């Protein structure tokens, strides 16, 4: 909230300055008070991840720089990070199941390991050939979820690799698709909303059959004659504060790049891009679902969902 006010003031001041004198390069610097996360570094799968289940359904290419997950009628598969992290920037490049992928779900998420768990989810719901995938996101805090948002993507996610990433610090959780913020969840502790701050999370990914709900609410079933279904991964970037599962705090808390001022809120350009996603690509937002939630969740206003 405070950051928002500050950047508005800065923008106004800059506009005024442009009015009175010429727009100098220094005023351009003033405008960009926030910044995109640091550029991810590509590392091999084995640096940060291990398979979780159905090891024989994961294949590695280019010296482990690329991994492919396979779903057939016997099983799906998944992998998880070796470490647990409290805050940071987590990114993955993915190419989703091409062709007829109805009924399949590919997920990339962060989750803590206890009962009152925190979770930050990307879930890609497959579809019939030529029909769009849906990207569903959700945030669980202290075991409470029910914060689904659904969007279509502005590109075909099965054609090329795109990056999907999460920035998580004390102030906010931001979901990015490439460089576009598609969702923000601000720390609304002051409004009585729990925020993940003391439970380390692992990063997970999996591909599985969910034709009881995934595509058109479960109407479209997985066509097993089209199996195996394959999702491809690369990059495997993790830049987080590694901690033990039991650790309550991160020793370097407040000192890492993601804690700094420019990552505590989105800037004007990022908020405009987010607004574009909400206007053009959003199918569902729990913040607007008055049937399910007669009273809107307190975080919705601060996240500028409404
Ligand atoms: C699949 O395609 C249909 C028809 O275009 C669309 O209504 C639906 O939202 C798409 N996605 C999923 C996951 O059902």
From TrEMBL:
Instruction: Please name the catalytic residues of this protein.
Output: 119, 123
Q: Known post-translational modifications?
A: Contains at least one intrachain disulfide bond essential for its enzymatic activity.
What PROSITE patterns does UniProt report for this protein, alphabetically?
GH16_1, GH16_2
Keywords for this protein: Apoplast, Cell wall, Cell wall biogenesis/degradation, Disulfide bond, Glycoprotein, Glycosidase, Hydrolase, Secreted, Transferase
Q: Identify the Pfam families for this entry.
A: Glyco_hydro_16 (PF00722), XET_C (PF06955)
Localization per record: Secreted, Cell wall; Secreted, Extracellular space, Apoplast
Give the EC number.
Answer: 2.4.1.207
The entry's cellular-component GO terms read: apoplast
List, for all copies, the residue spans of the domain called GH16.
31-233
Identify a single GO molecular function assigned to this protein: hydrolase activity, hydrolyzing O-glycosyl compounds
What's its top-level EC category? transferase
Please tell me whether the keyword Repressor is annotated for this protein.
no
Q: What does this protein do?
A: Catalyzes xyloglucan endohydrolysis (XEH) and/or endotransglycosylation (XET). Cleaves and religates xyloglucan polymers, an essential constituent of the primary cell wall, and thereby participates in cell wall construction of growing tissues.
What protein family does this chain belong to?
Belongs to the glycosyl hydrolase 16 family.
What is the protein name stated in its UniProt record? Xyloglucan endotransglucosylase/hydrolase
Organism of origin = Sagittaria pygmaea
């Amino acid at each position: 909230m405070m950051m928002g006010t500050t950047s508005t003031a800065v923008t106004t001041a800059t506009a005024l300055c442009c009015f009175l004198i010429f727009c100098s390069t220094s005023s351009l610097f003033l405008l960009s008070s926030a910044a995109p996360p640091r550029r991810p570094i590509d590392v091999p799968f084995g640096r940060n991840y291990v398979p979780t289940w159905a090891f024989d359904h994961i294949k590695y290419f280019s010296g482990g720089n690329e991994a492919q997950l396979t779903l057939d009628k016997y099983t799906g598969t998944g992998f998880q990070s070796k470490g647990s992290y409290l805050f940071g920037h987590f990114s993955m490049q993915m190419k989703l199941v091409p062709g007829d992928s109805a009924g399949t779900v590919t997920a990339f998420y962060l989750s803590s390991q206890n009962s009152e768990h925190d979770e930050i989810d990307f879930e890609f719901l497959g579809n019939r050939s030529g029909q769009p995938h849906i990207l569903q996101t959700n945030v669980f805090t202290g075991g409470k979820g029910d914060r689904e948002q659904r969007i279509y993507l502005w590109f075909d996610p099965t054609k090329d690799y795109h990056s999907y990433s999460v920035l998580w610090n004390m102030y906010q959780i931001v979901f990015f698709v490439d460089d576009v913020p598609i969702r923000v969840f601000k720390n609304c502790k002051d409004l009585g909303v729990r925020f993940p701050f003391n439970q380390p999370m692992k990063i997970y990914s999996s591909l599985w059959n969910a034709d009881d709900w995934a595509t058109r609410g479960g109407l479209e079933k997985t066509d097993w004659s089209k199996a195996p279904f394959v999702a491809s991964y690369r990059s495997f970037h993790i830049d987080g504060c590694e901690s033990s599962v039991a650790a309550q705090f991160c020793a370097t808390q407040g000192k890492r790049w993601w804690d700094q001022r420019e990552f505590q809120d989105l800037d004007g350009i990022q908020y405009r891009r987010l607004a574009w996603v909400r206007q053009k690509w959003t199918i569902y937002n729990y913040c607007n679902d008055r049937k399910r939630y007669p009273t809107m969740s307190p975080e919705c206003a601060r996240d500028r969902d409404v």
